[in-house]
Amino acid sequence: MKCTLCPRACGVDRAVTRGFCGAGEGLRAARAALHFGEEPCISGVRGSGTVFFSGCHLRCVFCQNSEISAGNHGWETTPEKLSARLLALQDAGAHNINFVTATHYYPAIRQTLALAGDRLRIPCISNTGGYEREETVAEYADLFPIWMPDLKFCSSFLSARYLSAPDYFEKASRAILCMRQLSGPPVYNNEGILTSGVLLRHLVMPGARADSLAIVDWLGANFGPEDIVISLMSQYLPLGRASEYPEINRRVTTYEYRTVENALAEKGFRTVYTQSRQSATAEYVPAWNGEGIRP
Length: 295
Ligand code: SF4
Known about the structure:
Elements: E1 27-35, H1 40-43, E2 48-53, H2 66-69, E3 75-77, H3 79-91, E4 97-100, H4 106-116, E5 124-128, H5 134-140, E6 146-149, H6 156-163, H7 168-183, E7 187-188, E8 194-203, H8 209-222, E9 229-233, H9 254-266, E10 272-274
Parallel strand pairs: 2-4, 4-5, 5-6, 6-8, 8-9, 9-10
Antiparallel strand pairs: 1-2, 1-3, 7-8
This protein binds iron/sulfur cluster (SF4).
């Protein structure tokens, strides 16, 4: 079958060859374990059952997970094994199942969740870089009551330079509006954990303050105060291939982050998570040791 799951629309048969994401036909992941590094309404006190998949259809040059995204590091698994692992994570107390960079595996995730069936009672999340096809979001929306997209860049120059995707904003903005339409406004359980809705993340980048402000304006123009949850991140670190791009080979300054934070505050969104600059530490990058995946 020719793969057109994401906007790259490679059209390749992944049983035979690889497209931009580097993924083959089967599931491949580097870790499936409780994770405490997400926003409080996702990680809660018991953790988010997080599956970090190998390969990526975006491959940002500054990716902090480049070993598994661009490097495709990981271990093969199957829908049977993964569904058993998801149930084990639920038994361990996970508030949700958090599929990270899962777009290229959506069909196999459908098989995985079908095998788990009603036994899996916690909600599932698609935790995505935002570069999605609207049609794919609509097709798989029944699997994911929660969408956790990034909105990385507004400028096509920046998204071409760092993501090899000049159409990033065009595609991501439309996909995010579709996610919101399909999932509805944020709903929480009695533990304050998100059970449905959109949590949108924006990472403030060095030297891209004006672009962040354009994204803030877009958010203000397209969403009401209670429509979505927003997470404004300051945790950028010059990892991956960032050293090849001098303008992003540094951390974000307090001034850059505060400017965006203040502009966002003026939009009046009800739930906005912000970060301190101390969050910019590699400690947030999990060990890619195959926990929960490796035979
Ligand atoms: S999921 Fe992978 S193979 Fe499919 S269109 Fe996207 S990049 Fe290409």
